[in-house]
TrEMBL record:
Protein name: Cupin domain-containing protein
Lineage: Bacteria, Pseudomonadati, Pseudomonadota, Betaproteobacteria, Burkholderiales
Pfam families listed in its UniProt record: Cupin_2
Residue span(s) of domain Cupin type-2: 43-98
Length: 118
């Protein structure tokens, strides 16, 4: 992605997951915003110990980059592993549970505030 990932780029050609992981390891929060443009935001998320996130105001996709565990979306639960994709509509309770130490996932927020209609 380049040498300075502290600025949030609006025109990205390539994001290297290894570079993004190294950046994330230097930050106090469990996520790094790597790209924002119009109604799309891309982050790398790696909770440490537990996942304490709250519902978000936009729809989101998780693409698991590494690790495995259990994911809860409202009253639904599934096992996940690297390469899996998970979808969460806006305002729905969700969290990663019992995840491996190496777990990290891409997060893609998209669409308008409040989510998209079905």
């Amino acid at each position: 992605m380049g040498s300075d990932m502290t600025k949030i780029p609006h025109d990205v050609f390539h994001i290297d997951e290894a570079d993004a992981s190294r950046l994330l390891a230097t930050l106090p929060l469990p996520f790094a915003v790597l790209f924002e443009r119009a109604n799309v935001s891309v982050e790398l998320f790696a909770p440490r110990g537990s996942d304490t996130q709250s519902p978000h105001t936009r729809d989101e996709l998780y693409i698991v980059a590494a690790g495995s565990g259990t994911f809860r979306r409202a009253d639904q639960v599934c096992e996940f592993k690297a390469g899996d994709l998970l979808f969460v509509p806006a305002h729905v309770e969700h969290r990663f549970e019992r995840f491996s130490d190496d777990f990290r996932t891409w997060v893609i927020f998209f669409g308008p505030q409040g989510g998209t209609a079905v």
